[in-house]
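ugh ok fine here u go
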Amino acid sequence: MSDTLSYDTLVAERHQYLQPLIAAEDHIIGYIYPHTPLELFFAHQLIPTLLWAEPKIPGAYEASLQTFCCAYSRNLFSQRAKNQLTNLTAIVFPGGTCDSLQNLGDVWQARFPEDTLLRLTYPVAQDEAALTYLTEELQNLSNYIEVTLGHKFSVEKYNEAVALIAEFRAATQFITAARLIKPECLSYTKYTKLIRQFLTVPGPQALQLIEQTAIEVQSELRQEQLIPSVEALRYGLLQNTFDDLTIPLSKQGPRIMVIGGMIDPEGIAVLFENAKTSADIESVEIVMDLLSFTYRTVFTSSPSLQGNPFQELAQSILSAPAEPTQEGLPNRLQFLRHVFDQFKIDGLIICEQSFCDPDQFEVPDMLKLAEKKKIFTVRLPLDPEFSDQARIEGRLQSFLETLTARR
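structure:
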């Protein structure tokens, strides 16, 4: 039997990823929202890093937050109050996405006025007016960074960053499409680790690991003549036109999908692998997720190097898939319906992070759709620290055993 995986171990690894940057006294900017424009911060000689919930952080300072603040917001605030947050040059807070993160930024500024906070407010549509508004927001943010931090916008650094993140997305999109067709080509655990490492320290070293993995996956699938199918699926996912494709799907075991909001995919991988081990079931795999920091991040279109960089960045952000604050429920349900049908999903894991309203409001409709499609589901109420790991793994173990028996 394999050793039990630990979420605490993953968090310790993230600290190790950041240590070289901290030691070199690089200017690090923390971000929270999945559609933060990393290219813009690189253009200002700042290194963006995705913040995470820290296990076992005391919550004594949560009294400063309103009761409707999500558990993720509370954890980040407690880290800062206990001086356990990574030393950052600045933190960028989103606006227009949810009340919790909006209020977190406001309370943070009042409680810790010595911190440099940046705000980027997102529109709630994808039309021409939204593009114009977000372009101006990005321009204003760039100007504020220059005035506040003294970091000028470098076209050269911007172009390098666009290329870096476009290569990250291209390689990871290929891997995502490959796993949809043949999930055993790369475990979900390794898949999420590659993405998380890049989002923690985005740079050539993390990109090289992803590209090397993509080459290895490509070599395996080439022997089975699956490369054309993978590329067609990748393009279809980018264009949201995959429902007419004929895709040769591997069916060695039940095909599972994960949905949810700003959940840590690496944490889900830990829970899933431990549940598989406890259930003594090998032939089951997560073939796809729609979590914020995997699918939504990876299948956002990269900005073009032609034209106004702020408008191109705005267009990129607005292209983000499966986003409740922009797409609306009918479009998201239609997308999910196509996914269920085209990718032969057998089981659905619904992750519900404590008080994360934008995604949880949609759960009843998604459950109805899954029931209509005869897809077996399990709901996982989670906190961002995965503190109730044993109980959640027990729910997952029961889900896997029942799903396998049903087939």
